Every structure is written in C-alpha cells, then in structure tokens.
Amino acid sequence: MPATILVINGPNLNNLGKRDASLYGNKTLANIQSDISDKAATLGIEVKFFQSNHEGSIVDFIQESSAGADGVIINAGALTQVGYSILDALLDAGLPFIEVHLSNIHAREKFRQESVFAAKAIGQMAGFGPSGYIYAIDHLSAVING
Is the pTM higher than 0.85? Predict the structure, then answer.
C-alpha cells in the first residue's frame, strides 16, 4: 500500500494567484496541488489535500485523517505564530511533518519570523515558493520510506 501524505494549507492560501506575487508567486493553490500530485505520483505516494481559513477545521482534519496517513506537509499561513491547537493535533497524530512557507518568513516582519511548529517539525521550507512543497514531499517520502 502506498504511503499517504496530508498536505494542509491554512488561511488565505485559497487566494493564491490573487495575492502579492512578489511574496507568494503567481500560481494558484490548485496549480500547486497539481504540481504536488505529479511529484507524488513519481514517488508512488498518495496525497490528500486540505485548506481552511479556520483553525478548528484544520484540527478536525488532522484528527480525522491522521490514522490513514504517514506524514504531513503544512503551510499554516497566518496561524504559524499562534496555531497551538494545530501543533497539538500534529503531535497527537505522531506523524513526521514538514512546515512550508512560500515566502521567506525569516526575512519578513518580526512577528512572521516565529513559528509554533518549527521546533517539532522535521524540517522547514521557507522562501522557495511553490517548489518548497516539492522539496518537502521529496524529503518526507525519503523519511517515510527509509
């Protein structure tokens, strides 16, 4: 049975393609998900996508989906600094996870430079644009498959 990776996107990421292209690029979330699906297929991995602007919905998704998953890629967006309930759900799931950000959060406003996930994630991709998701799935696949 192929490994399954949950790909979770938080607030405002549904508006990719309309947001500041200098920070987030021109691709829509659907474009990024298509790229992720293509990469996952080459790795023999299944992906399950979820996006919400609501923290509780993300927690619900992790709780409902983690039993059938092997890892998580998460771009929590604006919840990166405050999403402790999401972090708790990830820790309760016991799955390896990678944090992704399209922009380089470490080169932005001070408040964006903090992450509640960073200390528990197996890695963080920041500033690589949509390619960060591809790098993350490639690495997470290697971790899952040994």
Answer: yes
